[in-house]
């Protein structure tokens, strides 16, 4: 009684007494499920045909439902196996129905009857498989008669065309869904002739009147007499694909136009360095046709210098520099042996997944520019050589008057260069002393004593010590030389080496402590160029023979200069001089040998003595 009361209470919530009477009169087993999938009613026939008891179904509800295989059963008919009390499986045919019951919502009604031995099992299995395929395939499917009346559609049809919304209903005829009626007419004509059409390009409306492009595959449905009574259709959505194809064709056309009309040379290679394609400007630049270079190794054709990075190395540089690498001046050789210079940009080409599938080499022809630059450099070099020769010739005017000075200006030039190169390594001078500065300084240093041209021979060549008046006369050479160079420099419209030359001529006798001449400048008031030449000039004067004195040894000269650090000379420059003093000694010996090669025996003998002295000292230590 409790069980009957329980089921009656659950069942009463969804059905009227009339429905209950009809259910009790059914001769097949019956199960009713709630929206949540719970059993809320089963009839006595179910117990009789399955051999299950009410308590078994109540206590083993989930197990019983699993035998019904509800996921496959919904909206179809299928065969299931249900065990009896002894565990023997029996075959049943189950039919699933959705039932609407007003405010109570929807319920599932499942009819269960023993399998009829006379039923064609193959036909039942075919129907089941067809229903499964029809309702679960992702492509929209429908069937219609020859008048276009829709007979059935699958879930994907509802979903794709937007008819799964509660506010819209499926149209009765497929004709209203075609954007172009002639496409449907063409389809029907082909079906009547061939009973099948494949991948017919069709345009249909969705419920929102949006046009979608579909590939329509349809086949005819015939009656027992073989007459066509309707058709079934499967749609494949190609809206995105067709749009993409159109865009791709436009992109390909634009790419081809751009690839061959862009002014720069373009070479495409694969990740192994094999040439895939070149454009028309590349053909003109190198003299190769597209067919000649395709499938060739890039290095075999365009790597002219084995010291240059290989294409594999360049590809590695592209990958290491976020997909791009640039070479500013690349030398290549064309098909006819002509030298070509380019500005080359190497870039990685990625696919949609982000993988690099190829590399482009875009090159701008710099051949003419490089040729003109080389010609200009050669011309400038010639001008500089002529200019330097003229300046040296001008500077030697003073040496021709005093045969005892020897190659004084050559030595001064080299000493100056050594000091300037060493100063450039210091942080405070790194950005100030450039290659151009060093070249101008070296050339200008030769003009430091140009003002001595205006000094009388009686004073300039006097063998003994100078009187006070004579020394004052000698000191005027710095101002004479500076004024002469300044007058020439004023005629130029830009700064030149003469600007530095006049600074050196004016101030190379100024002192760090302010006691020099001609203006008594102190410390960094003295131009750097003059401070450098002052050290070079004093070292050469001390180590050279003059009419009024003998040459001093390198060691003694270095010590005298060291003692004047911070007095006569800039302390930083003296520190550099002390580090490079051995270079000064070698320069002096080299130029002296150039001037008088017969002294080579004495030089070698002195070097040998020094070598023995070092060995002896090393042994003593």
Describe the structure.
The protein is 48% helix and 19% strand. The protein is of the alpha+beta class. It folds into 4 domains: 2-119, Beta-Lactamase; 137-243, Beta-Lactamase (2-Layer Sandwich); 262-365, PAS domain (Beta-Lactamase); 391-617, Hypothetical protein af1432 (Orthogonal Bundle), CATH 1.10.3210. The strands form 3 sheets. Strands 2-1-5-4-3 form a 5-stranded antiparallel beta sheet. A 5-stranded antiparallel beta sheet has the order 7-6-10-9-8, with helices on both faces. It has a 5-stranded antiparallel beta sheet with strand order 12-11-15-14-13, with helices on both faces. A hairpin with a 5-residue loop joins β1 (29-33) and β2. α17 packs across α20 (497-507) and α21 (528-542) crosses α22. The model is unreliable at 10-18 and 613-621 (pLDDT under 50).
Strand order within the widest beta sheet: 2-1-5-4-3
Oligomeric status: single chain
* Number of spatially distinct domains: 4
The CATH class label of the largest domain is Mainly Alpha
Low-confidence stretches: 10-18, 613-621
- CATH names the topology of the largest domain as Hypothetical protein af1432
Mean pLDDT: 80
Gyration radius, to the nearest Å?
53 Å
Q: In total, how many beta strands?
A: 15
- Helix tally equals 25
How would you name the CATH homologous superfamily of the largest domain? Hypothetical protein af1432
Q: What fraction of residues sit in β-strands? A: 15-25%
Major β-sheet annotation: 5 strands, antiparallel
Distance between the termini: 123 Å
Q: How much helical structure, as a percent, in the residues?
A: 40-55%
The second-level CATH architecture of the largest domain is: Orthogonal Bundle
User: What structural category characterises the helix and strand content?
Assistant: alpha+beta
